[in-house]
Design brief:
This protein has twelve helices and nine strands. Strands 1, 2, 3, 4, 5 and 6 form a six-stranded parallel sheet that branches. It has a three-stranded parallel sheet with strand order 7-8-9. Helix 1 packs across helix 3 and helix 5 packs parallel to helix 6. It starts with 5 loop residues before the first strand and ends in a 13-residue tail after the last helix. This is Membrane dipeptidase.
């Protein structure tokens, strides 16, 4: 059983812990991503999304702060707590990831509803450690339309300002959940390579959350990354889904030139049904073993770790170049 280091660019453990405060990050079986399972799956880097569940009603900044607080108090290593994750903020830290056996966390924002249209709140999120922002979840907000919004509009004027501010301060952008129109508008505006943190190939499984071939090509051309996701209905339209059903998505993305642009974006803790034998983050070794039956070791290592690390190495902000901002 191979136990290589894995980088996973999307999970919803924080929102699950927000809704169920009794869930312990150390070992709660209700969490697909917990510390015990991260060790089991040898997760070197886990992106933790700040997602505001619909039951909260209209997104507020206090909801964003609530999940940041959960991360600080219950997930991150502190002086008082020696078990948990280190937090990745700066490019310079990437060399440290290889020198510790403790996992690292990367904070992301899934939908900007909770910023309440206030761009200063974006800067506060950056100062508090958020490094990747997706403009929408599935529906419209003040910045853009999500994929389930029937009108399929793109970015609002305020959304365009948001993208420009992200470019300015070093916040990376995520197009998973964005409409096609919004995708292309963001692609034109973004000065940095962007990611689709948890999306598969639309040509293989025509779900609205998956990427069309021209979108995949655009991400590749800009040296962005695509996180292969384990949401069963993004993998196959019907029937039980097994690990092998991910292979056609991998093949399609690679056929478009994406061998070095593919990474992982499980969406664990955001789903209630699972790919068979891939039910939590501790089962990544099963995925690795399946992939090694079909692909060279160096390619699989890239998908699990190398491609994500090279993206961050090129695009995370540098601490010593930290900009003085606030004049947006």
């Amino acid at each position: 059983m191979h136990n290589w280091r894995v980088a996973d660019f999307h999970c919803d453990a924080l929102s699950k812990m927000l809704m169920n405060p009794s869930h312990s990050f150390e070992n709660a079986s209700q969490l697909d991503v917990n510390l015990e399972r991260m060790r089991e799956g040898n997760i070197g880097l886990q992106a933790f999304a700040i997602y505001l569940p619909e039951v909260l009603g209209r997104g507020k900044f206090e909801h964003v702060m609530g999940q940041l607080d959960i991360y600080r108090k219950r997930v991150e290593i502190t002086k008082e707590r020696t078990e948990g994750t280190h937090t990745l903020l700066w490019r310079e830290q990437l060399t440290q990831i290889g020198q510790t056996d403790r996992p690292w966390g990367l904070l992301t924002l899934e939908g900007v509803d909770g910023l309440e249209g206030n761009l200063f709140y974006l800067e506060l999120c950056y100062q508090m450690g958020v490094r990747i922002v997706g403009l929408t979840w599935n529906y419209a907000n003040w910045a853009a339309d999500g994929v389930l919004e029937k009108r399929g509009a793109g970015l609002t004027e305020k959304g365009r300002e948001l993208v420009q501010l992200c470019n300015q301060i070093g916040m990376l952008l995520d197009v998973s959940h964005l409409t096609e129109k919004g995708f292309w508008e963001l692609a034109d505006l973004s000065e940095r390579p962007f990611i689709a943190s948890h999306s598969n190939s639309y040509a293989i499984c025509p779900h609205v959350r998956n990427l069309k071939d021209d979108q995949i090509r655009a991400i590749i051309a800009r040296e962005g990354r695509i996180g292969l996701t384990f949401v069963p209905w993004f993998v196959k339209q019907e029937g039980e889904v097994c690990i092998e059903d991910l292979l056609p998505h991998i093949e399609r993305i690679c056929s478009l030139g994406g061998e070095h642009h593919l990474m992982m974006g499980s969406d664990f803790d955001g789903i209630a049904t699972y790919i068979h034998s891939l039910e939590h983050t501790g089962q990544y070794p099963k995925l690795i073993n399946t992939l090694l039956k079909h692909y060279d070791e160096s390619i699989v290592r890239g998908w699990m770790w190398g491609n994500a690390m090279s993206y961050l190495g090129e695009n995370l902000p540098e601490k010593n170049l930290k900009m003085e901002h606030g004049k947006s």
